[in-house]
User: What shape does this take?
Amino acid sequence: MIDLHRGCDLHLSMQNIEAALSEPSRFTINGHSYLLVEFSDELLFQGTSEVFERFRKAGIGPVITHPERNRHLRKNLRRLARWVHRGCMLQVTGQSFFGRLGMRRAKQRCV
Assistant: This one.
């Protein structure tokens, strides 16, 4: 038997952040405490650390989805390590471990 739980990848914008803080069960996994947060491949939301802190104070645990896809996070693993140290979790796409996604895959496509 497979259990399905609702949730979403929240893209950080002021409107989404405020909505998630005011009504967390609408956005979190299965209406509980974990929130999937997705960045674009090219950008990071300014003030992300502060947003994650606000989420944690509200009882929401940020789960950063596929951080390996964001070029800024790939270049600054210390930022990810700080977020994890402060209570965030990471969800890495399995195919990235096998070179089917990410930089290695991009290089293969260019050859």
